[in-house]
Specification:
The protein is α+β, with helices and mostly antiparallel strands. The chain is built from two helices and five strands; from the N terminus they run αβββββα. The strands form two sheets. Strands 1-2-3 form a three-stranded antiparallel sheet. Strands 4-5 form a two-stranded antiparallel ribbon. Strand 1 and strand 2 form a beta hairpin. The relative contact order is 0.18.
């Protein structure tokens, strides 16, 4: 939590925290605004990376190749 706060204190606008074991990505737009993405969802870049989308299934299929 402290590290996420540090990012936002440094003017970062979007933080993705990847949890490979649960195959979830926590998307923070602020320290109080967190959305949990799961397999079947697509990760997007919001206002920071407009137009960027990537299905989580693709992320975790690649990640599963590296134990």
């Amino acid at each position: 939590d402290t590290r996420i706060e540090d990012f936002f204190t440094s003017s970062v606008q979007l933080v993705w925290v990847v949890h490979p074991q649960s195959k979830q990505i926590y998307v923070y737009q602020s320290t109080k605004d967190c959305r949990i993405q799961e397999i079947g969802d697509s990760l997007d870049g919001g206002k920071v990376l407009p137009g960027f989308t990537l299905p989580l299934a693709e992320i975790f299929n690649v990640a599963s190749l590296f134990p």
